[in-house]
Each structure stands twice: as structure tokens, then as C-alpha cells.
Please model this.
Amino acid sequence: MCGGANLFNAGSFAGAFRFGTWCLLGVFLLRSVGNLKTFGFFKSVQGTQFAYWDTHLYSPLCLALAVLAGVVAIGRD
Model:
């Protein structure tokens, strides 16, 4: 993401950095949504310690990382 955020001169790899940043956005967004059973915002399994931490920490963190990756991916050229 450092290359996508123009923290250094990416040169001919600028397109690869942008593509990688979009991939990170997708991965983190999919992780925050989850598989509808055991993890993510829309999980059906409740009452476990992992479900608690997933709801209160992991899924919001993944959503925040997806938003930040989107900001970097859309950012300046």
C-alpha cells in the first residue's frame, strides 16, 4: 500500500500497486462480511468467545482496513 499511497516512486510498478491495493480492499471487505455461518458481521453462530471478539474487534477492523485500502486505491495519481 505504500506504493499505492505514493510514499515512494513506484515507477513502472504503479499499476501493480494499484491492483494489489484493490485486491486488499476485496479481501478485507469479504472478511468483514464473512461466510454467513462462523465469522463476519452476518454470522449465525453466536455465544462463543470467538464470535464475541469477531463482532467487536475483527470484523470492524477488517471493514476499517477495507475503507482505508479504498481511500489509497482511489487516491491521487
About this structure: The two ends are 14 Å apart (CA to CA). DSSP finds two helices and no strands in the chain. Residues 11-74 form one domain. Residues 16 and 56 are 33 Å apart (CA to CA).
